[in-house]
Write a structure and sequence with these properties.
alpha+beta, six-stranded mixed sheet, four-stranded mixed sheet, 15 helices
Length: 456
């Protein structure tokens, strides 16, 4: 297994990374990326084991409901690169089982073993540029707006296109590329799944980030431990050897990868939501106590509503990891019905959770004095005098509490988070479709007929 320093060294591999129009010479020292690199490096150090058989749990398939629950609860403590590695490789496993193709299954199995042996971090790379959203890939005026195969060779394929919204692409090692949706006959060139190193010739990654600068960490107690660069990944005629090709023109399996990844992304999403909803409830209660409003009826009512939302998300998570499916290979997957229903509910109610905590906390969430005001001996007494509320609630405590809520819900990160909760694992409509597909409608209809006395 790699250490943090070995991970940093592995990123100095000639990759073409851009930030705000400038080529990044070294992502490990770039002021907007170093913090993300440090987070992942700390994760490597936390799990580092020099034993020859050691590997991170993200690479291992869960084989029971208990293991699945433990793994998904653990990933809420992992850095983003470990989370995306688990989701990417489990999506490949799931797709391999559903396709039933021996050649591709063998390649996927070998690739996962290679990732584990080399302790690399992977990102799922699925959302295409898509061009005109109402046109199929074959009808676009530019065929490259969906990533496609532009050449087939005896030893591999050449791909061209772009993938968007790729969290942590610039600071990981491997991109697991999948079709973004079902392709139809005549769209074989867009039915491609494969694995590409970030430093492969022809790969370019343009980046945005909400990561705080290293000199702003005190203002961002939450996002500083979670932010990653978002990659706009371009493939300019990238060669992929056969052993890394997992789908090459088989349109009947093109949606299999998207559905498999959606399952694991949404399972990870509800694990994170269950954790974060509890954090929001806790922050709301701390704000009320610090403001002296915890006994006011409408504040109690708002917190009670937040508790209900948090409990229902947690219940959905528990249902998803309890009612598992076991694959022929002997490992388990989350329940499709409960995973998608919980993800839909949690994402749909997220704006309500934020509205409630903002109403409980008040305007100081976005206007409280900055940490520098606490550090300055001239201004600190003013902050302490006017931000305190009672014995045991100092001005510093209350100010830092407001900053934590602002950073989590009303900062650049907070805005990114609201969008990410909604669209990660595809948007709400996709979760509606999958939930409806797996819901036992015949049971519901039979129950309705019995209730209406229409059994005959």
């Amino acid at each position: 297994m790699m250490t943090g320093d070995e991970y940093r060294a592995s990123l100095r591999d000639g990759r073409r990374i851009y930030y705000d129009g400038e080529l990044v010479e070294d992502v490990t020292t770039h002021p907007r990326m170093q913090g993300s690199v440090d987070l992942i490096a700390a994760g490597y150090d936390a799990y580092a084991d020099s034993g020859p058989e050691a590997f991170a749990e993200a690479y291992e398939a869960p084989r029971s409901s208990e293991e699945l629950r433990e793994r998904l609860e653990l990933l809420t403590k992992w850095d983003t690169s470990l989370v995306t590695t688990l989701e990417s490789l489990n999506a490949l496993r799931t797709a391999a089982g559903r396709m039933g193709d021996d050649v591709y299954s063998s390649r996927i199995e070998d690739y996962i073993a290679w990732c584990q042996e080399n302790d690399v971090r992977c990102v799922q790379t699925i959302s295409d540029a898509k061009g005109h959203r109402n046109l199929s890939p074959a009808k676009q005026d530019d065929p490259d707006v969906y990533t496609r195969i532009v050449e087939e060779r005896a030893d591999g394929i050449v791909i061209r296109g772009a993938k968007l919204h790729i969290s942590a692409a610039a600071v990981t090692h491997e991109m697991v590329i999948m079709p973004t949706k079902m392709m139809r006959p005549g769209e074989e060139q867009w039915a491609v799944a494969c694995a590409v190193p970030v430093n492969a010739p022809g790969v370019i990654v343009l980046n945005t980030t909400v990561s705080p600068r290293l000199d702003e960490l005190d203002e961002h107690p939450y996002s500083r431990t979670r932010s990653m660069p978002e990659g706009f990944v371009v493939f300019e005629d990238v060669f992929v050897p056969n052993e890394r090709v997992f789908l090459c023109g088989e349109v009947e399996h093109s949606a299999t990868f998207a559905h498999s990844l959606g399952l694991w992304q949404r399972a990870g999403g509800i694990a994170h939501m269950a954790e974060n909803y509890d954090i929001l409830v806790g922050l709301a209660r701390l704000l009320a106590e610090a403001n002296g409003t915890e006994r006011i009826n409408h504040i109690k009512d708002k917190i009670a509503e937040m508790v209900i939302h948090a409990t229902l998300v947690r219940a959905g998570f528990e249902a998803a990891v309890t009612n598992v499916s076991t694959t022929p290979e002997g490992w388990v997957t989350p329940n499709e019905l409960y995973t998608n229903a919980a993800k839909f509910f949690g994402a749909k109610e997220f704006p309500r959770m934020l509205s409630l905590i903002h109403d409980i906390g008040g305007g100081s969430i976005v206007t409280a004095p900055l940490p520098g005001d606490l550090a300055n001996p001239e201004t600190r007494p003013l902050v302490e005098k006017y931000m305190r509320t009672m014995e045991g609630v100092s001005g510093e405590y209350r100010t830092r509490l407001f900053h934590a809520v602002r950073d989590m819900t009303a900062s650049d990160f907070g805005g990114w988070w609201q969008v990410a909760v909604n669209i990660s694992g595809a948007g709400l409509h996709a979760q509606k479709l999958v939930t409806t597909k797996h819901y036992d409608m015949e049971h519901a209809k039979a129950a309705a007929r019995r209730a209406a006395g229409l059994d005959d």
